[in-house]
Amino acid sequence: MSTPSSSNPRRRSLTMERTVSPAMQRTGQWVFSQDIPTDIVVDVGEASFSLHKFMLVAKSNYVRKLILESKESDLGRIDLSNIPGGAEAFEKAAKFCYGVNFEITVHNVASLRCAAEYLQMTDKSCENNLASRTEDFLCQVALTNLSGAVIVLKSCEDLLPMALDLNIVQRSVDVISAKACNEANFPSRTPPNWWTDELSILDVASFQKVITAMRLRGAKSLTISSAIITYAEKSLRDLVRDHSGNGIKFSDPANSELRIQQRELLESIISLFPSEKAAFPVHFLCSLLRCAIYLKASTICKNELEKRISAILEHVTVDDLLVLSFTYDGESLFDLESVRKVISGFVSREKSVDVFNGGNFREACSASMQRVARTVDSYLGEIATYAALSISKFNAIANLVPKEARRNDDDLYRAIDIYLKSHPNLDEIEREKVCSSMDPLKLSYDARVHASQNKRLPVQMVLHALYYDQLKLRSGANDGGLPEAVATRGQLQADVSLAKENEALKSELMKMKMYISDIQKNKATTSKTSTSAGMPKKTFFSSMSKTLGKFNPFKHGSKDTSHLEDEVDLTKPRRRRFSIS
To answer: Which UniProt keywords apply (predicted)?
Structure first.
């Protein structure tokens, strides 16, 4: 004799439900309200549902076909793991079959619409079926405002390709792009760019569809860039917006799964940039470029960012350049190649513009070029303290700025002094290399006074500063600026050249003296050797006789003097003696 609990089919089915799956427990309240035992189990992934065939067949043509076409006489289990939306969507579709009320929302309408299409729950099976109910909700509620359309598009990301086939994706994109363009031109709430935050929940493929649709509707570059900036800051929060580096593990390998995903996301975002170079603020571009360097993004990606930064480099600040230069923890320097390319690209563009306008770049630089020169010099002063910064890299950046762009070299001198102070082990030649990018004649009076007393500078640089001040004192002139500095530089170069020639002449003269001294020593040695070999010694009389012989007028001619009176030397007038008596 069975117990009451065992004789009650509803209680027996509920007991089995608890032992089979949590999904069956969730559906127990409405499935077992029928006093008929379940006769089919539906598997959806890892979840299983014990249901009644006649309830499913009444509204799902797909389930009806499976049962009718089955080779088993009494089909007791079917697998619907491929249903869009998974177990959650099937559970609501099954509730609909049982007539159980549930709420359709913007979050589940897309999955329910796809599930209804998969299960063929259309009006062909029964009137006002799930497909038509969800379609009405989409048109009348979900796709009537921007926020609802964004949520629907987000839910479609897991429902492909069914959501594409049902045109849910395209309809959502059209609504979002139209509403976003309208909000950009006529804001309906504050802050005016609230709609950009709404788009940030989308994945990059859906976001790309929206941006493309907005472009087709004629959205301005500023509108597009505003959406891209918010999206990048939200999706790459730790890399773009948070400069402190909190939460970033620098020990992660470059090919880790997270890094690969971030790299692909960054490259996709950059591919959406509008063609206008000045569409983005420079600090945002610098943050993205540092992100690209850290993630080891493609060369095309980094080149695009470098070109855009160089196009608006006149607006860059020292902090922006420092963002490019350091790792996220601020402890070590990146490779400064990107900084060099950015500055080089800006200088080349300025020169090209000046030549195109018929000007002479060497005579006068633009205000933007002078502003960039001051920024670069200040930037060098900030990175000069790092031991990893080599002399070649320091000079490479300093020499990128044309000398004509600097009104004076005070900021550059400050950077050089900081570098020499932070690298105390440099020898004289290395210190001269560091100072080679600076013109001591373009220092202000205070800077020259400081340089003349600076023991860290090489001797040549100190002498230049002192010599310049001496010339100023001698001429009695005031600090006359660049033209006078150029003239003084020419005079100084001439004096230095003359001093070098004098040193060379002194050296040659000393060599000649030594050469003559050696000859004299050799001659004296030879004379002594000849005397010791047996040559007769000269006596006083022989020496005197030889001397008097030099005064003999007849030594080289005839003793006949008759011809002397007839020959007169016409070239030399005869000397006459005049006497006064």
So the answer is: Phosphoprotein, Ubl conjugation pathway
